Amino acid sequence: MPSPSLSLTARLRFIVWMTILAAVVTMMTVAVVDRTESETTSERIGRLNESFACPTCDGETVAESNAAVSATIRQYIADRVDQGASDEAIRNELLVAYGTEVLTNPPAEGFASLVWILPVVAVLLGVVVLGFVFSRHRAGDREPTDEDHRLAEMVRNRVMTTQTEEHLGGDRRG
Amino acid sequence: MNAAIGFGFVLLGLSASALGVVGGVYAFITAEGARRRRLVPMIRLWIGLTVVSAVGAFVIMEVALFQRDYTVDYVTQVGSSTTPALFNFAALWSSLEGSLLLWVLVLGIYMTAMLLKFWGRLGDPLMILAMVVMLAVAAFFFALLAGPANPFGVVEMPADFDGPGPNPLLQNHVLVALHPPMLYFGYVGFTVPFAFSVAALATGRLGEGWLAETRRWTVAAWGFLTLGIVLGAWWSYEVLGWGGYWAWDPVENASLLPWLTGTAYIHSVMVQERRGMLRVWNLSLLCATFALTILGTFLTRSGVVESVHSFTAGAIGPLLLVFFAVVVALSVGLIAWRGDQLRAHRIIESPVSREGFFLANNLAFGALAFVVLLGTVFPLVIEAWDGTRLTIGRPYFDSMARPIALTVLFLMAAAPVLPWRGASAEVLSERLLGPALVAVAALGTALAFGARGFYPVLTFGLGGFAGGAALRQVILAVRRQGWRGLVGRTNGGMIVHLGVVLLAVGMAASESYRSEQTVRLEVGETAEVDGHEFRYIEPGAELNERRHRVFAAIEIDGGDVHHPAATSFRQTGQTVPTPSVRSGFTEDLFLVLASMPSPSTNTIDLRIIVRPLVAWIWVGGIVMAVGTALALFPGTKRRTIAATSAALEERESGDTGDHSATPPGKVEPTPDSPGDLQDHESAGVDGNGDGAGKPTELTPTGGDGP
Question: Does the ipTM surpass 0.85?
Answer without folding.
Answer: no
